[in-house]
Amino acid sequence: MDTPLRNVRPNIVQSIRAYGVKDLQAAAEYLGHHFLYANLAKAQSKQDVLELIAAQYTLPAHFGKNFDALYDCMTDMVHKSGPQTGFIVVLEHIPAHSKFDKEAREQLLDIFRDAADYWSDRKIPFRCFYSFSVARSPKGEEPIEVQNEEPMPTDKILDVSPQALRMSSPFNAGYWLAAA
């Protein structure tokens, strides 16, 4: 078997893109790393995000439910618990709407970037993969349909990471050829 994630830097925070959660979990098992997974699709606010992470990562009961406490749980507290082999962390469906705006998303990802740096200084791999959720149509509303076209995918979760947005450049020749 080929070494999983051999082309991914050992200490990084990046969009999940081509990786499936089950593949990342299998890679963690193969490498002997901790696998931490949080599905944040139901989160609406910063507090919701922190509560879901706390529950799904099984953070201690005394977790302060703020970004500083999250950083402490991901770094110093774990480091003090004994030798660590590495981490593969997944934050799936980070909210992308007005109650959890771009600044809040960046603050959250900065916590994990800082944690990656912390573990890098200790020569321990810490890879964090994330995806964003898109706004969904309010309950009770039907998806917008255009005659002879498929419904808009407002009910589906999509990756709108910066990399994916860059890949959808207006200079994409396929886009312009299809529009012609």
UniProtKB/TrEMBL annotation:
Pfam families associated with the record: Barstar
Matching InterPro entries: Barstar (IPR000468), Barstar-like_sf (IPR035905)
Transmembrane feature ranges: none
Domain of life: Bacteria
Domain Barstar (barnase inhibitor): 34-130
Family per record: Belongs to the barstar family.
Protein name, as recorded: Barnase inhibitor
Species in which this protein is naturally found: Hydrogenophaga borbori
